[in-house]
Amino acid sequence: ALTEASRALFTTPSDVETLTVVARLAKKAREPAISAEAWGRISVLVSDDAAPLVAQSRALLSSGDAVGAVIAGRAAIVRDAGDAEAFQAVGLAQLAQKDLAGAIASFEKAVELDPTHGYALNNLGLACLRANMNDRAVEVLERAAEQLPMVASVPPPLGHALERVGRTDEATAAYQQAMDLSPKYVKARVNAARVAKV
Fold first, then answer.
1. What is the pLDDT of residues 78-92, one digit of tens each?
2. Measured at the alpha carbon of residue 49, what is the angle toward residues 46 and 51, in degrees to the nearest 5?
3. Which DSSP string corresponds to the chain?
4. Which end of the chain, N or C, is less surrounded by CB atoms within 10 Å?
């Protein structure tokens, strides 16, 4: 399907609908570089919309180009400074670059724009954990868990943060929640066992 859609671009290289199909199929086919290129072309054709640049940023990050992802995300912010997803995309790319201060600032802006953005809260918490801002991490990750109660990947970092501040019973409960949501979550099981031994 991706090959056929790519062929169609030879006859209609500026067709946004075809480019969108290519971008989405490339993502499913695990070809993030192709997806990023398609989103980039769409962003030129649709010059008043931040969404294609946000999508390009994510695809670039998936392809291992964190620098390009930051550039695309910042271009999205220029188009729409009120788009929480644009700040989230920049934050993820900064996190990949180990730019913790930049990532924290970007995620905080995303949360400021959308206080119920569970994934931005979760990523802010992860960045705070990496920066050893443990009390802040607990606060933010508790909010993330409230927003994303059925997402198994959210309780483990909360458990880790709770461990760091000495709240081991609550940490154990967080790991157990992850296992309840995803019984095959090995990392949560290992962490729960480790806390129990301590």
1. 999 999 999 999 999
2. 110
3. -HHHHHHHHHH-TT-HHHHHHHHHHHHHTT-HHHHHHHHHHHHHHSTT-SHHHHHHHHHHHHTT-HHHHHHHHHHHHHH-TT-HHHHHHHHHHHHHTT-HHHHHHHHHHHHHH-TT-HHHHHHHHHHHHHTT-HHHHHHHHHHHHHH-TT-TTSHHHHHHHHHHTT-HHHHHHHHHHHHHH-TT-HHHHHHHHHHHH-
4. C
Q: What is the mean pLDDT of residues 5-13?
A: 68
**8 Å CB contact between 57 and 69:** yes
Rounded mean pLDDT of the chain? 90
Between CA 165 and CA 158 the distance in angstroms is: 11
